[in-house]
Amino acid sequence: MTGGAASRRFPFVQFEFAFPLGPADGRYVTRAATGGDPERVVVLRTIGAPRRSRLTRGSARRREGGAEPEPVPTARATVIRLDGFDSDAAADAWLEDLARDPDRLAAEADTAAGELNALLRAHRAAAADPYVRDAVPAGATAVRIGYGAGEEVADGRFSAARELPPPSPRSRARRRAEALVPDERLASILARREDVMACEELVLRARADLDAGRPREAALQARIALEAALAELGGGDAGAELAETRDAVARAANEALGGDPSVQLQEDVEAAVTAIEAAIRRRRIGRGRAGNE
Question: Are 28 and 42 spatial neighbours (Cβ–Cβ below 8 Å)?
Answer without folding.
Answer: yes
